[in-house]
Amino acid sequence: MAEAEAVYRYESGNISHAPKKDYGPLDFTGKLAGGLRLDIRRRAPLYCSDWTDAFQPENFQKSVSSILYLFIAALAPAITFGSRFLDGTNGQFGVMEMIMSTCISGLIFSTFSGQPLSILGATGPFLAYTLVVYDLAVAVDVEFMPFYFWTCMWCSLFTILVAVFDLCALMKHVTMFSEDIFAGLISLIFIIDGLRMLQVDADFSPNLSLSDGSKRPWIINPAGIDRPFPAWGIAYAILPAIGFAVLGYLDQNLTSVIVNRPSNNLKKPAAYHLDLFVRGALTLPVCAVLGLPLSVASTVPSITHVISLTTYEVKQLPEGERKVPTKVVEQRATNFLIHVLIGSALFLAPVLKFLPRAVLQGVFFYMGIASLTGNNLFDRLKLWLIWDPAKYPQYHYIQKLPISRVHLYTVVQVVCLGILYGLKAIKETSVVFPFFMASLAIIRKAMRFMFTEDELKQLDGLPGEDEEDEAAKSKPDIVNLDVKEAA
Fold it and tell me: Is the pTM of this model over 0.85?
């Protein structure tokens, strides 16, 4: 482990120049809750400024604009996902439940998390897996809400254990190969489900339906609602809970990795273990008790949140002009107030029921199409439609690798994406699709037998990644676990 010198000011006022172990945000410390404790130490001194920075005169206008813009950007998916939950769970979940989940989870996360720029909400994989859990409950003839309660509580336990044992460090092995496939799955879920439900809505009710709560209680009794819940059902809930935990781990951390990229020029340190712990210890139990859909860090709103708070300047580079972030308003207030406004949308229920369902499903479809932009997998798929190599876009890997190697890499990703969507779509195998998603990192490791290290570096990285790595190494976000009070 590398050694570095740090300056510590103790409560006694003494200053110590001591060597310390170089632990980064995604390093394995080998200590119980080591990463979690480091995250808290990094973020605790910044907590007050996290609330006040948004209201500084130079930041106020940008913060207000971000709140209003993200309120709309986060509310629309909540309504859209809620309509899909309503159809897929026979009214157990709906639009009101999804708005409540987004509001409550967002308020908790913005208050206690380590990276408050991440926006919580429903995601395509979580929607799909929640419907899998509902189908499992129906298949074994148990009440869905108590079964869902135990699934969420098991998931809460597993998520806390992941945070306590530094398992976020495994994200070091998740590369763009897995990120692109995961993002591709989200896009396919949006596009295919959006088209399918447009057809259904054309045949049935044209307007949005809101669950009235009559089919479910608002405080879930884990022992059963209309009939006793069997003890074996508690154990049976472990399997889908592991799937939920895997999905939550990937969704939360992939979004955090994207938000914390050095290219975003964030100054405050990342806190992956703390983010996961807050979700496991607070948001999951609340959703379990209230019987609400689970929320997790959502990539597109989170990226939008960062962009809305960023000041850019245009720099002239050899390859042309490039917008470079010079400042980001890093704080909690915008995230908190965004979710306060989302919660206020509950009072709009009399208006929401007049929304045409086709409009919401169109939003679902549009989100799928829009999310294809910037996905390296789909960028490479477009190359298959260009017959003249002279007309290829000037991607960095095209300039350095034979096009046959680029196409082979794309084929591997397409096969993995097809398997992943197939596992999700087939009811008998849908419960295991999170586990295949987790195995993508292993598949990526095995690709060293098909490609050279240089080829993988070009295909499985972002342009300018080397410069980003150097910038990351220079960040002063390293803390020593072994510092003790000076005598």
Answer: no
